[in-house]
Design brief:
Helices cover 0% and strands 35% of the residues. The protein is mainly β and 51 residues long. It has one domain. A 3-stranded antiparallel beta sheet has the order 1-2-3, with no helix packed on it. The structure holds zinc ion (ZN). Zinc ion binds next to loops.
Amino acid sequence: MLEELTLTCEAADCDRSLDADAPAICMSTPAGTRRAYECDCGAVTITVLRE
Ligand SMILES: [Zn+2]
């Protein structure tokens, strides 16, 4: 299982780090666990953890 150790905002002009342990939304699907993180700049970064 892969874990993202460092997570940063995906917005091109933003380099804030996101708290990987505090996703705004966490959703389990057959393809993996999706997590959405909301940055202070307003962008949303989505990660997928495959198990
Ligand atoms: Zn941002």
